Amino acid sequence: MWVKFNFNIRETKETNSETSPAVEDAFLLSRRRKLACIHQIKPYDVDKSTTTMLQFKTQLSTFTSVIQLAKLRNITIIDAKQIRIRELDKYSVPRKTYRDNDKLLGKYKELKGTLTNKKFVIQLLPVPEQLGPNDTLLFVQHRDLKTKVNTPQWPITHELIHSGAKLIHLQNAFLEQSETKMGPAILHGIAEAPDLVIAKWFPDTLTWKRLCKNKNNGQNTNLRRSTRKNRGKYSHQNQNKSLKMKYNLRDGDLLAFVDAKTLGGVKVEKIEWKREEDKLAEQYKILANIGKNKKEKMVAVEV
Questions:
Q1: pTM of the shown model
Q2: Angle formed at CA 83 by CA 77 and CA 84, multiple of 5 degrees
Q3: Taking the domains of the chain in order of start, what are their residue ranges?
């Protein structure tokens, strides 16, 4: 079966401020930067029943637009595994990463049907992709408690590969230090887990939630939400564990972290996580709902 892919290329470089509007608040700037780094390319037809993910990536590597972007990024594509394919969500955020290169496209449940409502993004990597089946690809920002600013600014963020369902596993990824990798916490002078405070951004509710420890000191806090399918599995091991599975970490989630040593007299529960664009997004959402309600009332009167 042939299917048409609507592809974009995600360019993780600074956008040109000269093209920005004269008046632009933090929310509009964030949205423009997010959209400006995604360049649409022509739709592409592929036979899902006979094409593996690696073969698909190999075909994409021959696209003129992909070759041009690679040159712009000073990346030499010598292996098709240097192409990462992800889905874009409704907020234009790269989410699910397709990582099984030997799998036929038609075998992915997410790729069934005509895909008319799905958008995909290509990311070029300097080295071949080595994500494992249980790895989660996260975006990470450092929050400065004095300036109330997160860096790097979205969408230019740290990328973090996290494996494991417990909070301690996530902390270890932040604190990783080796010849080839340096965790984002290490880059900001945080060397120990007790000094690391992490929160997750929930775009649907425009809220940040701290990934906190549980009563048994956080070692068994599960970061994946309990579902009907796995609830029995976890309750068989420890019935109390399933009650702690309140963080549904998945590809594309945005995390922020702070250094507990900089809290001063502020309690960890009182940390202000919201960025300026988050506060403005709340205001825009309220205004949009007001406008929607007014429109519905007008329609009701006309009828």
A1: 0.79
A2: 160
A3: 2-124, 135-272
Cβ pair 137, 97 in contact under 8 A: yes
135-272 under CATH 3.10.20, yes or no: yes
Question: How far apart are alpha carbons 117 and 138 in whole angstroms?
Answer: 24
Nearest to 240 by CA among 231, 251, 227, 253: 231
- The yes-or-no answer to whether 2-124 and 135-272 have a common fold is yes
Architecture of domain 2-124: Roll (3.10)
Tokens 């000269």 locate to 18
CA 202 from centre of chain: 11
> How confident is the prediction along the chain (303 residues), in pLDDT tens digits per residue?
344 456 666 655 544 544 544 567 877 777 777 777 777 777 778 888 999 999 999 999 999 888 988 998 899 999 999 999 999 888 888 999 998 999 999 898 888 776 667 788 888 999 999 888 889 999 999 999 999 999 998 767 888 988 877 888 899 999 999 988 899 999 999 999 999 999 999 999 999 999 986 654 444 456 665 455 554 444 334 433 322 355 788 999 999 999 999 999 899 999 999 999 999 989 888 888 776 666 655 555 554
